Amino acid sequence: MVQSIRIGKEPQVQYVLRLADTCLILGQRITEWCGHAPILEEDIALSNMALDLIGQARALLARAGELDGRGHDEDQLAFLRAEGDFLNVTLAELPRGDFAHTCLRNAMLATLLKLLWQRLAASSDSELAAIAGKAVKEARYHQQHAGDWVVRLGDGTDESRQRIEKALVQLWPYTAELFTPDAVDEAASASGLGPRWADLQADWQAEMREILAAAGLAAPEGEIRFRSTGKLGVHSEHMGYILAEMQHLQRSYPGGAW
C-alpha cells in the first residue's frame, strides 16, 4: 500500500495549497461534464476550462512543494496526500449537480480566482506572481463564460429559471467560507505573499450581484451562519469520493506521471 505524504504547516505553504487545491478539485469536478454537456460546444468549453484549472493547479502545487522544501513534486502532492491535507474550499468539492448548478458555481469561483490572480500579480513571491500573470487571463474568460450562462438560464424558460434559482439557494451558504479570515491569510498579507481572501469580499459580492442582476436574480439576504471548513482540511462527505477516483491510478501503480 502506498503511504500518504505529509506537507508542512507553514502559512506560506498552506496559502498556496488553498489556491492550488481549489483549482485542482474544481477542475476535477468540471471534467465530469465531458461527454455530458447539453450541447457539443459547451462540452468542449467545459473541458478546456477544466484543463486551465488543472494547469494552474500543477504550477501552484509545484511551487508549494518548493516552499515546503521536502522534495515533493506536483504529482505527489495531487495524488499522495490524504483528505485532511487538502485545503480547497468546500464549494469546489460539492457534487456536479445539474447544468445550472455547475454554471453558477463556476461563476462564483471564477470571480474569486480572477480577483485573487489580479492581486497575486504583485506578490512578493516572483514565481507566484508569474503564475498569476497567465492565470488571470483564463479566469476572466471562465467568469465571462459562466456568467453568460447564468444570465441565459435566469432569463430563459420557466424550467431553467427554477433550476438556477434552486442552485443559488443551495450554493450561496458555502460562499461564507471564502472570506472567513484566519492566521494563514494574515501571515500571507503581512509578508506580501498574497491578499487576505476576506479583503476580496466586497469586490466579489459586487461582481456576483451584477451577474445575478443581469439574470433577474438577487443574492439571498441576511448573515450566513453556516460555515464550511474545507480551507482547514475538514471536508464534506463528498471529498473522499473525489480523491478515490482521482488518486486510484497513482496509488495502484506508483510512479505514474501526469
CATH fold description: Ferritin
Report the sheet-strand fraction.
Answer: under 5%
Percentage of residues in helical conformation: 55-70%
Q: Identify the CATH class.
A: Mainly Alpha
Q: What's the number of extended β-strand segments?
A: 0
**SSE pattern:** HHHHHHHHHH
Indicate the radius of gyration in whole angstroms.
18 Å
CATH architecture: Up-down Bundle
Quick one: CATH superfamily? Answer: Ferritin, core subunit, four-helix bundle
Total tally of structural domains: 1
Q: Characterize the biggest β-sheet.
A: none
Protein structure class:
mainly alpha
Low-pLDDT ranges: none
| Termini gap | 20 Å
Provide the fold topology.
Blueprint lengths: L10 H21 L8 H29 L5 H6 L10 H4 L5 H22 L5 H29 L3 H14 L11 H9 L9 H14 L24 H14 L6
Helix pairs in contact: 1-2, 1-8, 2-6, 5-6, 5-7, 5-9, 6-7, 6-9
Protein architecture, described:
The chain has 258 residues and is an all-alpha fold. It has a single domain (11-252), classed as Ferritin (Up-down Bundle), CATH 1.20.1260. The protein contains ten helices and no strands. The protein has helices spanning 11-31, 40-68, 74-79, 90-93, 99-120, 126-154, 158-171, 183-191, 201-214, 239-252. It starts with 10 loop residues before the first helix and ends in a 6-residue tail after the last helix. 43% of the residues are buried.
Short description:
This protein has 258 residues and is an all-alpha fold. It has helices spanning 11-31, 40-68, 74-79, 90-93, 99-120, 126-154, 158-171, 183-191, 201-214, 239-252.
Can you tag this structure with a few keywords?
258 residues; mainly alpha; Ferritin; 10 helices; 0% strand
